[in-house]
Amino acid sequence: xxxxxxxxxxxQERIGTTSSAHFYTKGRYTMVRRVMMLLVLVLLVAATPVFxxxxxxxxxxxxxxxxxxxxxxxxxxxCGIGQGRAAxxxxxxxxxxxxAGAGIRFVLILGLAxxxxxxxxxxxxxxxxx
Length: 130
Fold this sequence. Notes:
Helix content: over 70%
Shape: flat
CATH class of the largest domain: Mainly Alpha
Number of strands: 0
CATH topology of the largest domain: F1FO ATP Synthase
Strand content: under 5%
Radius of gyration: 26 Å
Largest sheet: none
Structural class: mainly alpha
């Protein structure tokens, strides 16, 4: 009988290796830092007319418009994120259970209508204030 030698098992610790989770979190924090720096830069550029204003400063109407535009931008962006997540989840659900596609599609369209209505209500609110 021939005795076969097996290779020793691979150690389960991650000594000397980098997991993909480490790369993901490292990249995520780098992206968050870049987005925050971009946000600070945009706010500084938006505030430049305030720093260069004469002694009268900004009127109340200009500040209302700036606040409304900022609110509409935030609402539109978050509605877009919500719609993307809803569509992605619906596509994943239909891929997992094709038989329930009709029900999932109905709930998706209803949810997208509610999400879009939030953006439309924000738009109406912003224009109603002026």
